[in-house]
Amino acid sequence: MSDAAHRGPAAPLLEARGITKRFGAITALDGVHLRLFPGEVLGVVGDNGAGKSTLMKVLSGLHAPTDGEIVFDSRTVVLHSPRDAQNIGIEMVYQDLALAGNLPIHENIYLGREPGRRVLGFTIVDEKLSRKMAMEHLDRLNITVKSVDQSVEELSGGQAQAVAIARATAFEGRVVIMDEPTAALAIKEVGKVLDLIKRLKDHGASVILISHRMDDVFFVCDRVMALFHGRNFEEAPIAETNRNEVIGWIMGTRGHAAGLAHEGA
Amino acid sequence: MAVRSTEEAARRRLRTLEKYGVFGMVLLMAVVLTLLQPDIFLSAQNLTNILRQVAMNALLALGLYVVILTAGIDLSVGSIMALSTMLLAMADVAGWPWPLAILVGPAIGVLCGLVNGFGLTVLRLPHPFIMTLGTLYTLRGVTNLVSGGRPVSGVSDTIRFLGSGEIPMPFLGKFGSIPVSAVVLLVCYAGTAYFLNKMSIGRHIFAVGGNPQAARVSGIDVNRILLVVYGMSGFFAGLAGLLMAGRTGAGFPNAGIGAELDAIAAVIIGGASFFGGRGTVLGVFAGVLVMGLLRNGLNLMDVSAFWQQTLIGMIVVGAVFVDVLRRRAGRGP
Amino acid sequence: MTRYTLKGLLAATGLAAAFTGAALADTKVAVIMSDSGSANPFWAAVTKGALDKGAELGIDVAAVAPAGGETDVAGQIAMVEDQIAKGVVGIAIAPADTAALVPVLEQARKRGVHVVFIDKRADMPGTYIGTNNIPAARIGAQHICDSVESGSDVAVLQGIVTSTTGQHRAQGGREGLVECGLNLVAEQPADWDAGKAQTATENILTANPGLRAIFASNDNMALGAIEALRTAKMLDQVMIVGFDGNPNAAESILKGELAASVAQRPAVMGAMGVEAVLKLVAGEELPDEIDTGAELVTKENAESYL
Q: Which among A62, A101, A153 is the nearest to B217, CB-wise?
């Protein structure tokens, strides 16, 4: 991930060009552009149905776009599955976490990519290694759990979110996409998750954060972009905008939303 | 804090009950039967009988367990077993060499299982209940069609050895021996335990049962997993068919009628969750033993077979209730 | 037979060592049926006959059936094994499958447990105790002969013609009717089914308006034939005799619609099964087949078949 930093901010690490996604007669995304630079945390905001989650599912390989292209590291890529996205270093933390509650923490972190020996096309899992790697990785991210053998369903919402994030970064993902990572959390757990996002950035990863919470966006993001009715609406470096303006974008207005500011976040 | 720790304790108790309850039940039944039938129950002959009697259900239950781990169900195992038994017996009686003939049962089983998997993944039938209900009828029908509804007897000695043969164990007394079918069981159970716990594909089966969405986004090919589990279920049903042909020396069209229900009951009694992702191979075997001991004990006491059904039903409900309690407790803070 | 005569028998054949007087009460015999008495009145009667015989002789008789009924082959095999483990001297069994029970029954014999068959035989040597359907059907035919004028038009309704039972009953009925000088105008299969029997009877009546009697190979078909007669308003002119002595047939007999039904004697079957086992234990030779006979159910005795 260090070589990504050397390319400098001029070349985006991940770029979506003119992404259109139709579900039958419904157009969820209509020619959307997105640029994510190395080491950047990009906030994506928009009202329910604005197309945020659909865009992220396109970027993470879960949905194929109807039109448009994805450029990663200056190369056009076609993502047929989440596995394709993971292979080039795009990881996604889903809103519903997408963890298997019945499995222990370490197995969730390496699910689908278990460490072990290959024998006749099958992988014999090296459980010891899986545990050890999980512990080291959680340590690196300052995530504390009782034991990596705890099953995920026994964790609190914040801990589970941390495991989901740990899972997304376990393979040196260069882009981590997070869909509302704080929405379901108790207040005291929100701060921990935001700290974790900052730590990812420190480790050199680029992050796309979808959030409804202005506090989150303004605390961790470098830049913010707004979608409205499936199209690009506005975007700006975080230093050049303010909450009221961004809340206005979410509702589809520019410049004169000051009066509504206190209702938002 | 105090509330939390008592809840925690309650949850732990439930987990313990779910994990070890069935072993306690096996032990309790063994003690009760020893007290009621001291001369007979613990005789080497009776213990050998029990091992032989549970063999078929044990194999079917093992296959169903793997399916139920994915929150699926396979109603067709009894019919798969019947078709495997029948075609195997026909091939054997027609003079196929035995190494080929014994492959017929498991091969037919895998084929039927893959048909189930095909219906779920390619035809996208909404629930395995429907697909396997379909094959339950279809395969039973095919069995009757190929056999004309009549048994085929005269299965060769090699195959009979697998189903009813015994490896003498002189230290167990005059009739003391280990049935060949018990050795087959041991291999299958140990193999499946290794497959499920040590191999990544086995862990993926658990993941699909725990959260199919999570499995999908983790790059696990859920359709492939489904083909594997229904194929395995078919394989074990076919293997049960092989043992059945060996035990009865025949292929007969009524083999395995209702056997799928016994197998499902054993899996549930064994502590596996109908909601998927939970259970152990050892628990399943204990569930099979509970049913086998109940049948054996009631037979020894000449109690009406209806009691067997009544009691099994109650035990199943009890086992599921423990699962429900655990889930409810698990949804705590 | 009393306890003393049995003991004498055993002593006489040199088996006294195995069964001392005290051990006689411990002599265990198993009657393993293919369906349980509470599910089927036929097997209820077998059970009663066997248990009564056991009480009479002072021995321990168990009458059992697998939970899954007639199709529970694996359950029945397990029962045989469990009875052997229990130490029975012999087993009277109605095999749930003619082929599949053979290995376990051979195993029983290898361990010195005697085996006889009741109601149905497995594909192996051994004494069969059951109803011989040919003479039984003749009893029904004879009742028709006794009731209608010689030379009258009569018909036979057959069961499933591929089954041995169906063939034997039809044969006995046909032979009985023809031998006493009746005119057999039709013989039609109706597959044991009431609806098919009704259709067949309608057709027979259309072709033979002078028909006087029908022998139906089971009660279901007999009751179907009665429905056809009722529709044609010919109940008074044609007499029907069925086979099985089922409760609904007995009801119809009491109402005066069905003339009679041939009943097997399941209680006798149960008792004879127990006796046959004991005879084998005593070293007697048994014939290959023992007919339990049949009896006619008419208005006089139909009460007891309800």
A: A62
